[in-house]
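Can you make up a polypeptide sequence alongside its tokenized fold?
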Amino acid sequence: MHYTVFTLQPNIFDSFLSNSLIARGISNNIISVNRVNWREKYGIGGYKQIDDKPFGGGHGMVLQPDPIFQALNDANLVSTLYEKSNKIINHNRIVPNNSNFYQNWQSNEKKVGKVTISLTPRGFPINQQLVEWLSSNFYELGILCGRYEGFDHRINEFVDLELSLGDFVLNGGEVAAMALIESVSRLLPGFVTKSENVMHDSFSSQLNHYVEQEEYVIGKNKFQNYERIPKNNTNLQLFDDNKWKTNVLTKIEHPQYSRPEIWNNLQVPEILLSGNHKKIQNWRLNWWK
């Protein structure tokens, strides 16, 4: 498994990557981790700018879309779901790409081996079912670690999955990225010396199903014709847009946008350019309705 981590704070990963099972996994070529500081190569101008003030006012700075898009594009990690338009579109994405990406992946005979993930409070919660799916079906994860007030909302057009570590806010996505890397890596063959050590972990699809002991439980003579116990959670829907709208949207901050006003033919919502603070506040409270 290869991880490409887009981060403005690459040094945060130094200790994580040089210790314990992660370091051994890298040494044994089971995993590899490439850190991309998109400010260094794709920052704008002499000061390598990657952020700007939010349209509509407010505190903090917003990460501009173009530098991170250039980094994603060079790494060949722009979402395959993106369809470029020749017309200027007022941007109003509410639901993440998650379910569309998952459905396309299910229906495509030639499975996509890469997936681009943005770690954000508005994302679907990371759980064991998701981790098992990622570890079993992909060979590269691109992971975006935000900072400040997060990414310009338009960058989500170019991301496959928006995921969250939980209903709380961190200084950036780096800690969440380390959690995701560790949870996926430990399920890869050879990462943990004995696979049985992770097969029956809490929340796992094999929880309490000790398949390796079945012949002793039911008897060796019956074992060959025995229908094995099915895995847990096999019929669960990995992503549920309706549940996301109901349980998540009411608890997360409104989208943020910064310069330029029109980028890749995606225009900032016009209300944020109006200068009417009453209307802007009403939009921020009800942007998803």
Q: What stands out?
A: The chain has one domain: 2-194+238-286. Residues 95 and 188 are 31 Å apart (CA to CA).
